[in-house]
């Protein structure tokens, strides 16, 4: 951006004087024009440095003010005026309007000619433009060289930060921080506090809920987002976020925080050119991760099918995965990728992968994750001597993963199934089938919660073996039809009472506590139930049959 202040450094303005509107010297200027007619303002396109002798100005203050207001209204950046030829001095009415609107008025010496002003302006303007272009080219070349030298993302971000003179934040497509570039700034402590606020969970939520982000999710890429980062020492610090993308595929965002100085046009050009280099870097990183996950998925397939011969081990040697310890299988699935275009899902896929890896990685040495779309298969390694305690660690780790996923994607958007824990690597295929069964049950019968361990299936295991539920429906009808008819006529009380009674091992007192009823009320209902049903409730065989019918009925009617 070339400003009026910059232009005043040209030779022709050496003896000029700013009469009013000095606060507007930061206005961008794009061209120069001479205006010696009263209606010249109507020809302006915006960004002009207007030159005039103003010989046509009326003596009436109102007309003087209207003329300067018309220049401002039509986008002029400043007015350069030769007063000695006709005016003598610039009228106070004009100076007042200019000062109130931060519109610079510059007085030029009488010996300056318009051709010399225009020539000097254009020479200076073109030289400055060339400097900016060379700088941008140097920046682009510098960043690409850093990439070719395999410098890390952190080094690149530090370089960008030093170029723009402000901290830089690089984030993924869901505003998870990848790297922070700070370079060597003087007020480091203050900058760190502002950066901490900017990368906080509350500010991230603000970004995720912005119109800017929602447009990006649906494929409409916007140029930038400007927000203010709260700061105790100042009223707020401007935050400018720019998407990093190629062909509408969003790889992340780069943000400059104006901790040290306001941004300039050159800074914005540096940032926008930096997005090209960062897009290539993030794309390469993403492709590497995709390749790794594809290999992981293939490895998982081979492990669960028992294909662990020498050639297979050699093919997967680059993954640095040990296959000597036993493994337990786990499956996590996103119910449906919501509000995301196809390109955007790629970035979400990465975050899910990292969330699973980080959550389980706190408790387990080795986690192998592969995914096919929104379905993630995980194999968790453990030592043979820890078989007894592994289930509790799995429960703890999975709870942390599901909580983190819920936080970022919303409640009840993920389901999980966990297979059995076996002390031999040969049993991982069995664990995988069990995880798949647990996942299918929890997806059908959400009453069990979003995550289910195979060992907790109980009666649900039968459902995992049945494709056609007609026989089970007929079974339920045979055992429960009379009770259902009674409940319809009398207010739905006996089915629930019998269900809780059987789950309470036929204890009247415990049933009463769970139903918040008096024991006598429960005893009366059980007596009534025994009168209505056709099978002997005191028989262990039929107790089990009724419990199965009640559980099945609850599942089938969800």
Secondary-structure topology with pairs:
Blueprint (H helix, E strand, L loop, with lengths): L3 H4 L9 E4 L10 E4 L13 E5 L8 H13 L4 E4 L10 H9 L4 E3 L6 H35 L4 H12 L3 E4 L5 E5 L6 H11 L2 H8 L2 H7 L7 E5 L7 E10 L2 E9 L7 H40 L5 H6 L11 E8 L7 H20 L5 E6 L2 E7 L8 H20 L4 E5 L9 H17 L6 E3 L6 H6 L4 H21 L3 H10 L4 H8 L3 H14 L7 H17 L2
Parallel strand pairs: 2-3, 3-4, 4-5, 14-15
Antiparallel strand pairs: 1-5, 6-7, 6-10, 8-9, 9-10, 11-13, 11-14, 12-13
Folded structure, characterized:
Helix 11 (342-361) packs antiparallel against helix 12 (390-409), helix 15 packs across helix 19 (540-556) and helix 16 packs across helix 19 (540-556). A hairpin with a 7-residue loop joins strand 8 and strand 9 (237-246). It is built from 19 helices and 15 strands. The protein has a five-stranded mixed beta sheet with strand order 1-5-4-3-2. Strands 7-6-10-9-8 form a five-stranded antiparallel beta sheet. A five-stranded mixed beta sheet has the order 12-13-11-14-15. It is elongated. The chain has four domains: 4-126, Udp-n-acetylmuramoylalanyl-d-glutamate--2,6- Diaminopimelate Ligase, Chain: A, domain 1, CATH 3.40.1390.20; 151-285, Beta-Lactamase; 322-465, Reverse transcriptase/Diguanylate cyclase domain (Alpha-Beta Plaits, 2-Layer Sandwich), CATH 3.30.70.270; 470-556, Orthogonal Bundle (Arc Repressor Mutant, subunit A). The protein is α/β, with parallel strands linked by helices and 558 residues long.
């Amino acid at each position: 951006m070339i400003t009026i202040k910059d232009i005043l450094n040209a030779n022709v303005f050496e003896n000029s004087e700013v009469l009013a509107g000095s606060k507007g010297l930061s206005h961008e200027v794009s061209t120069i024009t001479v205006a010696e007619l009263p209606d010249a303002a109507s020809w302006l396109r915006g960004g002009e440095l207007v030159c005039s002798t103003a010989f046509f100005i009326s003596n009436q203050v109102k007309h003087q003010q209207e003329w300067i207001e018309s220049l401002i209204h039509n986008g002029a950046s400043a007015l350069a005026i030769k007063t000695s030829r006709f005016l003598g001095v610039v009228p106070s009415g004009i100076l007042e309007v200019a000062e109130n609107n931060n519109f610079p008025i510059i007085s030029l010496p009488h010996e300056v000619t318009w051709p010399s002003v225009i020539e000097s302006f254009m020479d200076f303007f073109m030289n400055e433009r060339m400097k900016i272009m060379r700088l941008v080219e140097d920046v682009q070349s510098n960043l690409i060289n850093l990439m070719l030298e395999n410098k890390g993302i952190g080094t690149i971000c530090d370089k960008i930060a030093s170029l723009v003179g402000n901290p830089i934040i690089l984030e993924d497509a869901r505003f998870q921080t990848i790297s922070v570039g700070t370079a060597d700034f003087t007020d480091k402590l203050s900058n760190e506090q502002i950066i901490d606020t900017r990368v906080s969970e509350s500010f991230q939520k603000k970004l995720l809920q912005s119109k800017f982000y929602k447009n990006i999710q649906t494929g409409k890429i916007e140029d930038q987002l400007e927000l203010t980062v709260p700061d105790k020492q100042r009223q707020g610090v401007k935050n400018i976020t720019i998407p990093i993308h190629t062909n509408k595929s969003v790889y992340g965002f780069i943000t400059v925080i104006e901790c040290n100085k306001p941004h300039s046009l050159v800074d914005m050009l540096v940032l926008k050119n930096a997005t090209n280099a960062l897009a290539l870097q993030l794309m390469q990183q993403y492709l590497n991760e995709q390749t790794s996950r594809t290999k992981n998925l293939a490895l998982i397939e081979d492990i669960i099918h028992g294909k662990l011969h020498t050639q297979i081990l050699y093919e997967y040697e680059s993954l640095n995965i040990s296959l000597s310890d036993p493994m337990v299988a786990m499956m996590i699935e996103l119910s449906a990728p919501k509000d995301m275009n196809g390109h955007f899902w790629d970035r979400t896929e990465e975050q899910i992968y990292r969330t699973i890896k980080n959550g389980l990685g706190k408790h387990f040495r080795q986690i192998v994750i592969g995914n096919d779309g929104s379905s993630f298969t995980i194999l968790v390694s453990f030592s043979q001597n820890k078989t007894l305690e592994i289930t509790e660690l799995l429960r703890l780790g999975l709870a942390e993963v599901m909580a983190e996923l819920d936080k970022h994607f919303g409640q009840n958007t993920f389901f999980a199934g966990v297979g059995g824990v076996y002390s031999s690597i040969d049993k991982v295929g069995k664990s995988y089938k069990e995880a798949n069964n647990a996942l299918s049950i929890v997806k059908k019968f959400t009453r069990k919660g979003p995550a289910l361990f195979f060992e907790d299936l109980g009666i649900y295991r039968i459902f995992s073996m049945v494709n056609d539920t007609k026989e089970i429906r007929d079974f339920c009808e045979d055992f429960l039809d009379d009770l259902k008819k009674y409940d319809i006529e009398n207010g739905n009380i006996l089915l629930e009472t019998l269900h809780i009674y059987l789950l309470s091992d036929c204890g009247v007192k415990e049933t009463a506590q769970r139903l918040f009823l008096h024991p006598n009320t429960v005893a009366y209902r059980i007596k009534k139930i025994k009168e209505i049903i056709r099978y002997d409730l005191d028989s262990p065989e039929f107790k089990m049959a009724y419990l199965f019918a009640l559980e099945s009925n609850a599942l089938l009617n969800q």
